[in-house]
Amino acid sequence: MPDDRLDLSIDSQSLLRALSRLRTLGGDVPATMMKVVDRGTEMVVTHMKGQHFFVGTGKNAMQRARDNEFTFKNPDGSPRFKTRTANLLNSIQSRGAHKSGKDIKGKIFVSEKYAKDVDEGGPGRRAFPFKRPAIEHTRPLIRRDALKIVEAAIRKANGRG
Asked: What DSSP string runs through 78-122?
C-alpha cells in the first residue's frame, strides 16, 4: 500500500532560535511544540474543508443539483455534474499531536475510501487536489503561528507572561 503521508516541516531559523531561548530559560519545549503541532494540524484541516467544494445534503439536495447542474461549478470553473454528500468533507479530521521518539507529529485523517481518487484523480477521473494545496497554503501561516506560540512560552518562562 502506498504511503499517503505528507510532511510539513516548520523549521526556520527564527523558530529554532526561539526554541533554543525557551530551552535556556527552562521552559517546557515539548509541551510548547505539542501546542504548535495541534494548532498547525487544525489550520490544515480548516483549509482542506474550506476548499472542498460541496453542493449540499438533506431533503431535495439531489433535485437541487439536477436543477442547477450547469450552474454548479468546480473550483476551476468547469461544470459540476455530481452531487456532493459531505461524506468526504466530514471525514477530514485532525487526530492531534503525539510524540514519536524525539519527534512530535500531528495526524490528519481523511477516512473516505475515495478521497485519494478525488485528490489524485483515478481511472477516467480528474484530480481535485485538496491535501497538498492545504499544506502549501498554510505552511507560512503555521510558521508565523508557531513563532507566536513559542514567544508566548518564552514570556511565560521569563515571568512576564
From this structure: PBP-S---SHHHHHEEEEEEEEETTEEEEEEEE--TTHHHHHH-B
Phi, psi of 107 (to 5 degrees): -120, 140
Query: Residue written as cell 487536489?
Result: 129
Pair 145, 13: CB distance under 8 Å:
no
**Cβ–Cβ < 8 Å for 55, 63:** no
Predicted TM-score (pTM) of the model is 0.73
pLDDT the model gives residue 42: 94
52, 130 contact by CB (below 8 A) = yes
The per-residue pLDDT for range 14-53, each reduced to its tens digit, is 888 888 999 999 999 999 999 999 999 999 999 988 776 5
pLDDT given for residue 130 in this prediction? 86
Residues 6+ apart with CB under 8 A from 52: 88, 89, 92, 130
